[in-house]
Recover the amino acids of this structure.
């Protein structure tokens, strides 16, 4: 379906009406396993000689529709759906790295991503060097002979720092290693990172792709645009597989070798599979992704105008604002919109910010983003609280930062809600000034 436009792909890619009953909606195949046609077919399935479904930890018909749709939307050759965005990242690292290897990663990203690289992977002998995502020289200099990837978020969470995908892709291509990008804050509606040179994409489908806060999910999108056989850095793809009769994945599957490795090892041996029910929920979300993203962007623009012009707000950070350090890059890479996350601080610091969060009535105080509903949180005491002081400082996370995920409500209702919450917050600021 390569010739269809985005909104058509989001509705149709990966699926035809059910052949048996004619169901137009994607059926939920709530099953663990599948009856084999013969012993020969069963053996062929488990040796990757034929396509099909044998056990839902590896593949499932409902999940497969989602995977094909995601690959189509991102212009990848294949996708592997997982139980969460974090598991998608982990199985990607598992497929490419071993003890003694090295990763270059952005210092300004989601707290769990940082902890995975800084602590979890370190226990297994994989070292990470953190660099500023917009410092191209630092990224190039951090790459070592044993480096296996550069990883970053296009829009950093929660500080909204920008990574120039096309510029970093030139560096990784010259170094002979893949660029792995977390595109959760963007979705393929905003940007096509593979077209800009990224090789692998990570998505938390829990966010805008699902869009309704009802299902966890993640995905790895295989760009199919990296030559895994150009050097000896990736034996997991170019040497005989420990199973499957020693098949060499790069020779057998070519551009889709990485996705096959992830499925044959990450899903088989670790098992972070997506449930068919969650795949169905996320497919429902994808059907309206384009429409929702348009509303997210228009509401965000209106909310930015409101916040920038409110004297009770100390500062506002968003890539669309001219004073953002990554403004020019963001406008070039993402002309349709620069995301629906806003970082801001309220006069009066952390105490005033907490009063604001506790006073909103329409917006919800919870740990998620990309919901149809507007969400607010103080990352420093929640989503990023487990970071070390050093990591928190290097990530640009200030004590007064509030993260706003702008939803789809009527914008005037949102403004009214924020006005009344800011009135409460300003009382905290006034009391603080009197005390001083």
């Amino acid at each position: 379906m390569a010739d269809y436009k985005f909104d058509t792909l989001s509705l149709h890619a990966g699926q035809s009406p059910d052949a048996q009953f004619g169901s137009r909606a994607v059926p939920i195949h709530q099953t663990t396993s599948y009856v084999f046609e013969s012993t020969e077919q069963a053996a062929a399935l488990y040796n990757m000689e034929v396509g099909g479904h044998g056990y839902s930890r590896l593949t499932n018909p409902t999940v497969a529709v989602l995977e094909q749709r995601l690959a189509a939307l991102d212009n990848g050759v294949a996708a592997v759906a997982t139980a969460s965005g974090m598991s998608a990242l982990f199985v990607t690292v598992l497929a490419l790295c071993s003890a003694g290897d090295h990763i270059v990663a952005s210092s300004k990203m989601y707290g769990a991503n940082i902890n995975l690289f800084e602590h979890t992977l370190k226990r297994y002998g994989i070292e990470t060097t953190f660099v500023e995502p917009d410092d191209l020289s630092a990224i190039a200099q951090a790459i070592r002979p044993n480096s296996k990837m550069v990883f970053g978020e296009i829009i950093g969470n929660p500080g909204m720092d920008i990574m120039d995908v096309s510029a970093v892709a030139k560096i990784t291509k010259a170094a002979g290693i893949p660029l792995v990008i977390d595109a959760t804050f963007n979705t393929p509606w905003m940007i096509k990172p593979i077209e800009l040179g990224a090789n692998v994409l990570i998505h938390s489908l829990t966010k805008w792709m699902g869009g309704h806060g009802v299902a966890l999910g993640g995905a790895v999108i295989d760009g199919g645009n990296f030559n895994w056989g150009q050097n000896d850095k990736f034996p997991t793809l170019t040497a005989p597989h420990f199973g499957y009769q020693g098949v060499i994945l790069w020779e057998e599957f070519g551009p889709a070798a990485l996705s096959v490795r992830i499925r044959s090892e990450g899903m088989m041996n670790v098992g972070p599979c997506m449930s068919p029910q969650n795949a169905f929920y996320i497919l429902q979300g994808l059907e309206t992704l384009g429409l929702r993203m348009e509303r997210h962007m228009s509401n965000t623009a209106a909310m930015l105008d409101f916040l920038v012009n409110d004297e009770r707000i100390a500062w506002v950070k968003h890539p669309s604002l001219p004073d953002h350090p990554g403004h020019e890059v963001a406008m070039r890479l993402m002309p349709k919109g620069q995301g629906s996350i806003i970082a801001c601080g309220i006069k009066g610091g952390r105490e005033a910010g907490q009063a604001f969060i506790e006073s909103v009535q329409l917006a919800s105080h919870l740990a998620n983003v990309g919901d149809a509903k507007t969400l607010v949180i103080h990352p420093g005491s929640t989503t990023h609280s487990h970071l070390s002081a050093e990591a928190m400082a290097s990530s640009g996370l200030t004590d007064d930062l509030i993260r706003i995920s702008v939803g789809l409500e009527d914008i005037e209702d949102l403004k009214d809600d924020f006005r009344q919450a800011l009135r409460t917050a300003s009382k905290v600021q006034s009391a603080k000034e009197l005390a001083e």
About this structure: The longest strand covers residues 147-153. The chain is about 40% helix and 15% strand. Residues 37 and 307 are 62 Å apart (CA to CA). The two ends are 65 Å apart (CA to CA).
